[in-house]
Amino acid sequence: MNIRFSPDAARRELTPVDNLFFLNFMPDADGTFVKVYLFGLMQCYHGSLSDVAIGDALGIPESQVRCAFV
User: Fold this and answer.
1) pLDDT in tens, the chain (70 residues)
2) Of 4, 70, 62, 68, residue with least CA distance to 38
3) Among residues 64, 14, 4, 63, which one has the least CA distance to residue 35?
4) How far is CA 38 from its chain centroid?
5) Is 41 exposed, middle or buried (0-12, 13-18, 19+ CB in 10 A)?
6) Whole-model pTM?
7) Residues of 6-19 as b/e, b for ≥16 C-beta within 10 angstroms?
8) What DSSP state is assigned to residue 20?
9) What contacts 40, CB < 8 A, 6 or more positions away?
């Protein structure tokens, strides 16, 4: 089964982002890495999205996703 990201569901939910991310990591982070982190964080908080491939959802190769997590 493949679950797709629903923009409607995302509007009804919240994903907390620690301020340390903004202060310590975001200033030096690559934009793609920020997208991967935030999307992955959202998946952690909303289990129904856990089957969504991050690369597919963001339109980037899986190799970039792996690099972002490293």
Assistant:
1) 455 556 566 667 788 999 999 999 999 999 999 999 999 988 888 766 666 788 998 999 999 999 998 8
2) 68
3) 64
4) 4
5) middle
6) 0.74
7) eeeeeeeeeeeeee
8) H
9) 54, 69
